[in-house]
Design brief:
Blueprint (H helix, E strand, L loop, with lengths): L7 E12 L6 E13 L2 H5 L9 H14 L5 H15 L3 E18 L2 E10 L3 E9 L2 E15 L24 E11 L6 H18 L5 H15 L3 E10 L2 E3 L14 E3 L5 E8 L2
Antiparallel strand pairs: 1-2, 2-3, 3-4, 3-5, 5-6, 6-7, 7-8, 8-11, 9-10
Helix pairs in contact: 2-3, 4-5
The structure holds uric acid (URC).
Uric acid binds next to α5.
Function: Catalyzes the oxidation of uric acid to 5-hydroxyisourate, which is further processed to form (S)-allantoin.
Catalytic activity: urate + O2 + H2O = 5-hydroxyisourate + H2O2
Family: Belongs to the uricase family.
């Protein structure tokens, strides 16, 4: 019998960082998972804990690096955290830091942005994965559960048909999804937050302002536009449920069947996934 692979660390380490060097505070809330590999096989195979860093220590270091880097975006915080483990512990070979952000946006009262008031932005959680060795670090950013829709300018027609096909063609339907996306960086952009915002803005602009022949068609063009807009991107992966809204037939009640009253459904849903990269 052999230990094929292993890793360990601490998950769901929650931190709220408040940058408060001026009256205008900045807040960043994260849930962080850090996983280590290296000289830890004997912990599994020989009941030898002598090289094992406590997962409790991993949690402490997550907090300490947060205090040392209160103002860093998740990507650079993740890199700093990974570097701390590589610097401090020779037995550590790889560090994987995965963070998920709870977004707080600045409160606006009477048209004025508030210095220390925020509201929860519950639409999607920004994610970051840093995979680090002493040879280098790979950074992936993304978004989980980012939900958006449009009420027209979407269709699904001219598709393959056989004796099992029952779906009617349409050139006018709702398009809605809760997107899981991740994008890989070739190098640090000048500003991660600004670059991530530009990726989202660019993708949403394509989604809403162009007719969608299919979810596939929209995702591919959204991915290409994001790569065009942000040169530091290597590629972008999108996984999107097609959240179906089914028109309700009110003809039996003498009403038009006119796409105005629809049934929202979560399941079953189409599932469309792709990765768009550079040639
Ligand atoms: O955008 C779509 N892509 C599909 O592959 C598909 N299949 C389906 O039934 N409806 C849709 N819509």
């Amino acid at each position: 019998m052999a230990l094929i692979n292993s890793t360990y660390g601490k998950g769901r380490v929650r931190i709220m960082r408040v940058k408060r060097d001026t009256a205008r505070h900045e807040v960043r809330e994260l849930s962080v998972k850090t996983l280590l590999t290296g000289g830890f096989d004997r912990v599994f195979t020989d009941a030898d804990n002598s090289a094992a860093l406590c997962t409790d220590t991993v949690k402490n270091i997550t907090w300490i690096v947060a205090r040392e880097n209160v103002g860093l975006d998740s990507e650079l915080y993740g890199k700093a955290l990974a570097q701390k483990f590589l610097d401090a512990y020779p037995q550590v070979e790889t560090v994987t830091v995965i963070s998920e952000e709870t977004k707080w946006t600045r409160m606006v009262v009477d048209g004025e942005e508030q210095d220390h008031g925020f509201i929860l932005d519950a639409n999607g959680k920004p994610t970051v994965t840093v995979e680090a060795t002493r040879a280098g670090m790979a950074v992936t950013s993304g978004l989980s559960g980012f939900t958006f829709m449009k009420s027209t300018e979407s269709g699904w027609d001219k598709f393959f048909k056989d004796e099992y096909t029952t779906l009617a063609e349409t050139r006018d339907r709702i398009a809605a999804t809760a997107m899981e996306a991740r994008w890989r960086w070739s190098r640090d952009p000048a500003d991660y937050a600004a670059a991530n915002a530009l990726i989202l803005k660019t993708m949403l602009k394509v989604f809403v302002s162009t007719y969608s022949e299919s979810v596939q068609d929209s995702l591919y063009r959204m991915g290409m536009a994001a790569l065009d807009a942000v040169p530091e991107l290597i590629d972008i992966h999108m996984a999107c449920p097609n959240k179906h809204y089914v028109p309700i037939n009110l003809k039996p009640f003498g009403m038009d069947y006119d796409n105005m009253v629809l049934l929202p459904t979560d399941e079953p849903h189409g599932q469309i996934e792709c990765t768009v990269g550079r040639d």
